Every structure is written in structure tokens, then in C-alpha cells.
Amino acid sequence: MLTLTKYGKIIVYTLLLIYTLLVLVPFLMMISNSFKTMRDIYLKPFSLPTNPSLKNFVDAWNQAGIGRGYLNSIIIAGSAVVGIVIISSLFAYAISKYEFKGRRFLFIYSMLGLAFPARLAIIPIYLLLRDLHLTNSRLGLIIIYIAVNIPFSIFLLKNFIDGVPNELSEAARIDGANPLQIYRHVVLPLIKPAISIVSIVSFVNVWNDFFFPLIFINDRSKATITLAVSIFFGEYANRWNLLFTSLTLAVAPTIILFLIFSKQFIAGMTQGAIK
């Protein structure tokens, strides 16, 4: 086990404290300023609100269409996560537990997505979706997000599936189970921690993304929550009170999601570290 000296602990705790402050201070400022007026934000940006009001939340909700943005983001992120989990787990199961020609090539090819960001291929992606008449549609975004998040999901799930004993699959096969039944009733229950990690990470990535909705969505009724928030960025001035409020509303679901599933997330990370 790694042990630290007294001075080593001081250095580590100091670095952790600095990192915590770098993360928490902007976040707390955003929440605090969401209860202030524009005048208070300019005069006392780092102080607590003297007369907190919910008026900013009402105005931001109505003017930016936060409710509609929530609905679009939930549909897109939820559908993308389901597609990512199903496709990546089936792919990882196949290349982990079955021997066939081209198996290694398929795995390496899928890992190329980790090396090359999808944004580098935005022009061919746009042309492809345009030819398929999927621009300015939720389905087009769902397909993009599934494709973008599959490489990491395959990499993670394959490592977990590799740890599933082959004897369990053989025993199920002897009992008459087919490959899909083995995948569903044997493999999936044993990799639930990994599926939790894939689901949470993919959901947060899709929910927080601003780039692809900005490029492919031009109808405000189909705008995601991140695109809806951008209405408060002006060409010459920003409406900071409503911007901070809308950002607070935008990040709230991901924080709640992590708090609900934090045990599963930590369990998956711990199990992966042990492996």
C-alpha cells in the first residue's frame, strides 16, 4: 500500500483543496447570482444575495423555453443512452466472448473513435444528415450522440465482460440457452456497475453538449436545454441574471441524477479499478 509522509500529505491535501475550490467557487457563484438583479451582480458579484428573489427563475423559464428545452433534452439524452447501452454491450459481448475472423480489427476500428473527435468530421456528418433529411430533427442528434459515445462504452464494457467467467456461459449453453439469452440473463446482471457508468457518463455528455444542437437545430421548438440557454447571450451585452438562472436550471438535472446513482457509479469505478 502506498503511504505518504507528513509533508506529502500536506501537499496532497493542499492540491485537493485548491482543486475543490476551483470547482465549487464558480458553481456557487452561479447559484448565488441567479437570485440577484443585474445591478447587484455588477456591484457585488461575489457576495450572497441581499434580497433573494425567484423572479429570475420565472423570467428565464418563460423567455428561454426551459420547459421545452428540458423535454427535448430528456427525449434526446434518454433515447441516446438506451441506444448506446444496447449497441455497445452487444458489440462488447460479441468481441469478448466469441472468436471469429476480423474480431481484433473490429475492436481496434471501434477504438479509433477515442482518438479522433467527431467534431473534426462535422462537415461530412452534416452532409450525410442533410442527404438523409435528418438535419433539424431530434432523431439526427440521437444518431450522432450514439455514434460519438459508443467507442468509450465499448472499451469500458469489454473490460468488464472479459472478467465474466466463461464457465457461466458454458453452463448456460449446456442448459439450452442461446447467445442472446446468455447475454441477457448471465452477462448483463454481472456488468450492471459498468452499465451504470456508461449510462451516467453518456447522459451527462449528451445533456451538456452545445455544439451539435447549435449546428443541426434551427427550430426553437426542438432546441435542447443548452441551446435554449444561449438566448441570453447577446451580441453586445449579456443578461447575466437570467443567464446564471438558466444555467442553474440546466445543470440541476445532472446533479440530481448523479446524487441518485452515485453509489452505483462509485461501485462501478471501484470494481473497474480492482479489475
TrEMBL record:
Membrane topology: Multi-pass membrane protein
TM region(s), chain numbering: 12-31, 70-94, 106-127, 139-161, 242-261
Domain ABC transmembrane type-1 residue range list: 70-261
UniProt keywords, alphabetically: Cell membrane, Membrane, Transmembrane, Transmembrane helix, Transport
Source lineage: Bacteria, Thermotogati, Thermotogota, Thermotogae, Kosmotogales
Source taxon at top rank: Bacteria
GO biological process, one term: transmembrane transport
Subcellular location: Cell membrane
Name assigned to this protein: ABC transporter permease
Record-stated family: Belongs to the binding-protein-dependent transport system permease family.
GO CC list: plasma membrane
